[in-house]
């Protein structure tokens, strides 16, 4: 969610609703951004929501309350261990060696799913972002890192109940689109619009810009402010082996010498001037880094792949070959091979030592958005806008149409045992679906003489082409023949996590306390914005007719604004307008609890 003020958001607390009441919301969060003189209303709203935690100091004038879309245990609520997933599209997937699946969604949440039983069970929800969660990276089995369009990067305890260990705010001036991790080095990188790249040291909890922002932000960012470094926190120090206490010897320095700030600011200004002299760079939508943290690849809208050395911040190479946006990147553990997927419908394999493309896969008929690969880089999976998921054996040059999704494929993740491929797709703009497809073993077709084997099928041989984009084949008839010959797509998914209904419409009632909402399934409900609860559910109904039936001749000034941008009901507060209304219990339709 993009706020016009451009200010960051801060989470104050969570409310744990009981699952035995049908009319309780599945998700309720209070995000506090009121000024210091608004503590009276802040306290009353937290009391109304049931929040009993401590309040943090506010530093801005925006506030937002989020009420989840989905109505109680009827939709398989979290407390009941239900199987219903997100109420918006899933943008990123990650699996762990312990049999867990992490999903990051446009509804601003991350979920952890236990896959050991017969069906996936939601074990934890990670709440704290206030806009689309665009990227997810796993650092071992203990830490996950997420990035969001709210311009923050968050560090989470992967095995916990949803605890955020640290938040890096103000390090990006625009949407953060992707994140990558180097497990051995304890290093994380994030990138986004305006070509920004930031490195994070998980031991010191410090952010360092690799590339400052360039050009104008596509999302209306707040300009060219240089990213600031975030010091370590007490929560970070207690989070585990990846999180240290901060500076040398564990000593923290909350107030560095002013001369240090002047030198740092001068260096950042010089970097920005150098970048501006070179001209604006394209936005970055893909990142890849080897576990040792010695190479970082970035995929841009300029169709280039830039590779940096995170240790020296120097650009190591530029890979040219794609003719459109680079949307996904994968690097092998040794840092010698790089896979890239692009909106030019191709997947390319690069030799990092030779700095050139050594193989081009032209299997798809539309943009390729995501990639997955086996640890040895022997088998590659690709998916995108054409809804098809292919797997390719790079050494044998064999390919198979593994699945046909219901909608464009947004993300993929291979299970630890390589037996299943998890795929997220968005059949419509308000639906989310995560499926697992069984990955059968490759048939034994290795030629006796060794070396590369090219299948005699015309459709397959034409799909593996040289480096020239002009030679690429785009004949859907050949790919259709491949699907009929060697495809397991007709078997369908082995496991499915369906999405929950998303809120798609709302009406604010005249009392300025109740809001009518309608979800993607047509169900209408009435919410109390003070308590964050559904007070009445009407089932499938016409929201306009229900609004007319509930109209009362009262006049209350507007003190909040609402939207359902994330599939949830968001109530935005801004001082001093949020204090402009008052209501009296005797004249209120429902008494204030």
Automatic annotation (TrEMBL):
Offer one Pfam family short name for this entry: WD40
Record keywords: Repeat, WD repeat
Annotated region Disordered: the residues are: 1-20, 208-281
Extent of the WD repeats = 83-115, 126-156, 277-318, 319-360
Q: Which GO terms describe its molecular function?
A: ubiquitin binding
Q: Which GO terms describe its biological process?
A: double-strand break repair via homologous recombination
| Gly residues bias: start-end ranges | 214-226
Q: Identify the InterPro entries for this entry.
A: WD40/YVTN_repeat-like_dom_sf, WD40_PAC1, WD40_repeat_CS, WD40_repeat_dom_sf, WD40_rpt, WDR48
Composition bias of kind Low complexity appears in 231-242, 265-281
PROSITE patterns cross-referenced by the UniProt entry = WD_REPEATS_1 (PS00678), WD_REPEATS_2 (PS50082), WD_REPEATS_REGION (PS50294)
Top-level taxon of origin: Eukaryota
Q: What is this protein called?
A: Uncharacterized protein
In its UniProt entry, the species of origin is given as Monoraphidium neglectum
């Amino acid at each position: 969610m993009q706020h016009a003020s451009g200010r960051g958001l801060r989470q104050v607390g969570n409310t744990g609703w009981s699952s035995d009441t049908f009319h309780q919301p599945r998700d309720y969060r209070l995000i506090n951004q009121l000024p210091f003189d608004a503590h009276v209303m802040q306290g009353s709203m937290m009391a109304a929501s049931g929040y009993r935690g401590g309040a943090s100091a506010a530093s801005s004038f925006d506030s937002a309350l989020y009420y989840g879309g989905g109505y109680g245990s009827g939709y398989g609520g979290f407390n009941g261990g239900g199987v219903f997933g997100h109420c918006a599209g899933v943008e990123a997937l990650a699996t762990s060696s312990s049999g867990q699946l992490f999903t990051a969604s446009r509804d601003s949440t991350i979920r952890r799913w236990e896959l050991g039983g017969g069906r996936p069970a939601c074990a934890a929800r990670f709440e704290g972002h206030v806009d689309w969660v665009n990227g997810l990276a796993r650092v071992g089995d203990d830490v996950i890192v997420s990035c969001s369009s709210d311009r923050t990067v968050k560090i989470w305890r992967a095995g916990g109940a949803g605890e955020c260990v640290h938040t890096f705010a103000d390090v990006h001036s625009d949407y953060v689109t992707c994140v990558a991790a180097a497990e051995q080095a304890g290093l994380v990188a994030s990138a986004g619009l305006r070509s920004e790249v930031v490195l994070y040291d998980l031991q010191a909890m410090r952010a360092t810009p690799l590339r400052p922002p360039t050009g104008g932000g596509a999302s209306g960012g707040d300009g060219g402010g240089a990213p600031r470094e975030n010091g370590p926190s007490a929560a970070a120090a207690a989070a585990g082996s990846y999180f240290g206490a901060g500076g040398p010897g564990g000593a923290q320095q909350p107030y560095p010498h002013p001369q240090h700030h002047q030198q740092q600011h001068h260096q950042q200004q010089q970097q920005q001037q150098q970048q501006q002299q070179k001209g604006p760079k394209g936005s970055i939508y893909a990142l890849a880094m080897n576990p040792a943290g010695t190479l970082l690849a970035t995929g841009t809208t300029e169709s280039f792949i830039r590779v940096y050395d995170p240790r020296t911040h120097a650009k190591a190479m530029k890979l040219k070959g794609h003719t459109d946006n680079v949307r996904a990147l994968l690097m092998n553990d040794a840092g010698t091979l790089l896979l890239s997927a692009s909106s030019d419908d191709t997947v390319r394999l690069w030799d990092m030592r030779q700095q050139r493309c050594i193989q081009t896969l032209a299997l798809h008929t539309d943009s390729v958005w995501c990639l997955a690969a086996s640890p040895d880089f022997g088998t590659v999976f690709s998916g995108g806008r054409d809804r098809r998921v292919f797997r390719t054996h790079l050494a044998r040059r064999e390919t198979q149409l593994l699945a046909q999704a219901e909608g464009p494929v947004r993300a993929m993740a291979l299970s630890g045992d390589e037996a299943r491929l998890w795929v997220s797709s968005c059949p419509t703009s308000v639906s989310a679906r995560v499926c697992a497809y069984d990955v059968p073993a490759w048939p034994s077709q290795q030629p006796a003489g060794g070396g590369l084997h090219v299948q005699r099928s015309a459709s397959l041989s034409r799909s593996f082409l040289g480096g020239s984009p002009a030679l690429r084949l785009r004949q859907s008839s050949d790919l259709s023949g491949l699907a009929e010959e060697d495809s397991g797509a007709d078997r369908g998914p082995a496991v499915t996590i369906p999405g929950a209904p998303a809120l798609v419409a709302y009406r604010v009632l005249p009392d300025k306390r109740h809001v009518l909402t309608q979800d993607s399934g047509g169900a209408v409900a009435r919410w109390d914005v003070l308590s964050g609860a559904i007070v009445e559910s009407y089932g499938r109904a016409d929201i306009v007719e229900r609004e007319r039936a509930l109209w009362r001749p009262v006049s209350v000034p507007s003190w909040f604004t609402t939207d359902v941008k994330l599939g949830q009901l968001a109530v935005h507060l801004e001082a001093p307008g949020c204090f402009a209304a008052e209501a009296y219990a005797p004249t209120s339709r429902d008494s204030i609890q």
